[in-house]
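Hi V.,

Quick status before I head out on leave. The structure for the redesign project is tokenized and pasted below; the design run finished overnight.
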């Protein structure tokens, strides 16, 4: 007769230390994109809350789009969801008389292809980037991110 094993003790060791994060070409490219004037131009003049929402949603979706690349179905769903959210956000911004230049800059930065790693980025760099965000799938599927469609209308109430 076999006896069941006792439940495993919870892992109390610290998480593994990530080596090399933030020093590779992908991290440098992402930091450069986030620091460019183009990103600053996506913000509707006079709306700090919209600034925060747009500035938060873009890097969040950069993680989701980049880290889902190896899963075709998830990547397709994430891409379609982001495109729908951007279209809705664009309509909300337009309806609230946000300058056309700011809207155009936002839609350019928010294009999925502009949020993905460059074509020849080494897999190791993408892997390190995604390792820095180990809970990205849970966050996405639990809607733990900025949904512009839901939050942006409240800015203009």
């Amino acid at each position: 007769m076999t006896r069941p094993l006792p439940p495993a003790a919870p892992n109390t060791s610290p998480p593994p230390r990530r080596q090399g994060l933030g020093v590779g070409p992908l991290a440098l490219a992402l930091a450069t994109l986030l620091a460019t004037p183009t990103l600053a131009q996506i913000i509707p003049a006079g709306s700090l809350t919209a600034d925060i929402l747009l500035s938060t949603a873009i890097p969040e979706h950069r993680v989701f789009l980049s880290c889902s690349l190896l899963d075709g179905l998830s990547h397709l769903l994430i891409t379609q969801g982001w495109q729908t959210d951007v279209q809705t956000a664009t309509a909300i911004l337009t309806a609230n008389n946000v300058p056309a230049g700011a809207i155009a800059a936002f839609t350019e930065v928010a294009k999925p292809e502009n949020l993905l790693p460059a074509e020849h980025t080494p897999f190791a760099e993408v892997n390190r980037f995604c390792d820095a965000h180990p809970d990205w799938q849970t966050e996405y599927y639990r809607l733990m991110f900025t949904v512009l469609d839901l939050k942006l209308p409240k800015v203009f109430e």
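Above is the designed sequence. The mean pLDDT is 77.

G. will cover questions while I'm gone.

Best,
W.
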